[in-house]
Specification:
Elements (H helix, E strand, L loop, with lengths): L1 H35 L1 E12 L9 E8 L5 E5 L14 E7 L2 E7 L2 H31 L1
Antiparallel strand pairs: 1-2, 1-4, 2-3, 4-5
Helix pairs in contact: 1-2
Length: 140
């Protein structure tokens, strides 16, 4: 029993620590993106659905924005939600990379959703696995 429990707790701990690490890296990447990116506003000009079977009601926004050089750009978000994150004609804050203006980070869920999900799962898995794992190791 103790060996299988050790393996179970070790796996849970490992998965938790990996989720926490990935979540931190994504959060840090978004933070760096905002620091090095150009902040501007974009207008929601449309919504698009994911082509999948069965059909879904989730939609992502289509944004229009201008770069520093007054170049007009269109961005198709890949964050699909029900209801949509933003409404038509809504102005939102975005960041884009000066050397790659089509590389965009939107304010709101786009910047924190994935890191928070990974932090949540990572915390739960680590709190389940790590105490049992360390207890079993200390017994040996």
């Amino acid at each position: 029993m103790s060996k299988s429990w050790l393996i179970f707790c070790g796996l849970f701990s490992t998965v938790g620590i990996v989720c926490l690490s990935i979540g931190f890296n994504v959060w840090n990447k978004n933070r760096d993106f905002k620091k090095s990116g150009v902040e501007t506003t974009a207008m929601v000009i449309g919504l698009h659905k994911k082509k999948q079977i069965p059909a879904t009601t989730a939609q992502a926004v289509i944004l229009q924005y201008n770069t520093k050089t007054e170049e007009n750009k269109i961005f198709y978000s890949t964050t699909y939600t029900t209801p949509p994150l933003f409404q038509l004609r809504e102005q939102i804050k975005i960041w884009y990379q000066p050397d790659q203006p089509e590389n965009v980070l939107m304010e709101g869920k786009d910047e924190w959703l994935i890191p928070m999900i990974l932090f949540g799962f990572g915390t739960i898995f680590t709190l389940i696995g790590l105490p049992g794992f360390t207890k079993e190791l200390l017994k040996r």
